[in-house]
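The instructor's notes for this session suggest beginning with a concrete chain rather than abstract definitions. Hand out the sequence below and ask the class to guess, before any prediction is shown, which regions might be ordered.
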Amino acid sequence: MADKLAITTGRDVPYVIYWSVELDDYDDVGAVLGEESEADRVAYARRIKDSGEDGTDREYMVSVLAAMESPGVKHNGAVFYWETLREAQQALRFINLRLKAAKKEIPWPDWAIRAKAAGWTPPKNWKP
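After discussion, reveal the predicted structure:
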């Protein structure tokens, strides 16, 4: 099993999304989305666009940028968080769809990502 995004309750916030990092005998909490500075988030967008960077770094950067745009997201100066479990689950679907699209290098239009996160099922054989 590879590293994946997961939802947990935060220390001072209701729900956060974090990377669950697989180690030898157990999973550990990796980075919580939104921990980086605003300047870092701006740099992520530039690095993804300009370099076509791939791998774990790209996956992390895409997840952070998607979290910024996800439904119901808030930032308390330390991390991104969501008020309800439902909002966090919807955001997790939204982020995973962005990651999937980034891996395929076939970007989904924003309307389709938002619709899918809200429960829309694309027609059979639909391509972005």
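Then share the key points. The mean pLDDT is 81. Strands lie at 4-9, 15-22, 27-32, 74-75, 80-81.
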